[in-house]
Amino acid sequence: MWEFSLNMKTENFELAKFLYNNFSLNTKKWKAVVTSVEQNGFISILIAVDNKYKEFLQSYLKNCIVEVICTVFKSNYLDSNLYLPLQDKLGMNAFKKALLNFDKETDRYLVKKCLDLEKDLFLESFYMFRLPILKGKWKELVTLANENREYLTSSESFIDLLKFLVDNLEICEEEISIYKDNQKNYQILISDKLYQNKVFSEDSLVSSIIDLSPQKINLYCDEDSRAINLLHCLYEDRITDKSKNILNEVAKF
Predict the structure, then answer these.
(1) What whole-number distance in Å separates Cα of residue 152 and Cα of residue 221?
(2) Do 49 and 31 meet the contact criterion of CB atoms below 8 Å apart?
């Protein structure tokens, strides 16, 4: 039987709860036992599995921990250290998401390289003391943005930098489609399936698209809105406006 304990400070209760629920759901196929204990200022997620499934479970846990460091911890780092001139919510959400995803594969590599699951892991300590190269990399990115904050007071300059970041993200999805519903929310479809099973507001649409980093965007929104205009600025030739095709078909009848 292989046993492992992932430990977090109680201040990260919501993150611990999220991980516990995911571990419980996604390790059933290996008949893993998952439980949690809270004591002495820490929440411990305890996992045990038959040795024959050890490598599968370790690989799964590594991917989860890497993703937490490269999303949750990096997001918190950006919030604490990024000082930019005020933009509207849509623009700032998009800019932060672009920084979050910028060179993410290297971030993942650096975390995975240092990650050892042969012994129990204290998540915050691992982040603070084992990943100085990663934090130095993030510091360089934030410093560059902060040092150019005056340049970014111009909306045109802000969009230019945002476009540069978006153009240099690794492609994650080959093709997505965007629709607008009757409640003025947006739906994102990937292979005809609703992304995250939810709708997106105008302020969150662009940042969600940046997260997906698509090669091609099919747009079924015949409108002039801040979000759609920003998408056109950022993705240009990657966008195909399908709404006009629909209107042309309707006009034939």
Answers:
(1) 29
(2) yes
How do residues 157-205 score in pLDDT, each as one tens digit? 889 989 999 999 999 999 999 999 877 899 999 999 999 999 999 989 9
Q: How many CB atoms lie within 10 A of CB 60?
A: 19
Tens of pLDDT, residue by residue over 64-92, are 999 999 999 999 999 999 987 766 888 88
CA distances for 217 relative to 97, 170, 174, 228, angstroms: 18, 15, 9, 11
How many angstroms separate the Cα of 139 from the Cα of each of 25, 123, 151, 160? 35, 20, 19, 21
Q: What are 107's two structure tokens?
A: 């971030």
Q: What phi-psi label fits residue 23: left (phi over 0), alpha (psi between -120 and 50 degrees) or beta?
A: alpha
In whole angstroms, give the CA distance from residue 233 to residue 239.
Answer: 10
Are 158 and 87 in contact by the 8 Å Cβ rule? The answer is: yes
Evaluated on CA atoms 149, 154, 160, 165, the torsion sign reads: positive
**Residue 28 φ then ψ, to 5°:** -60, -35
Angle between helices 89-101 and 202-212 (to 10 degrees): 10
Helix axes 104-114, 54-68, angle to 10 degrees: 130
Cα(32)–Cα(24) distance, integer angstroms = 8
DSSP code per residue over 186-240: EEEEETTEEGGGS-B-HHHHHHHHHHH-EEEEEEE--S--HHHHHHHHHHGGGEE
Tokens linked to 126:
């691992």
Q: Residues, the chain, total?
A: 253
- Which position has the token pair 């099919």? 218
Largest interatomic CA distance in the chain: 71
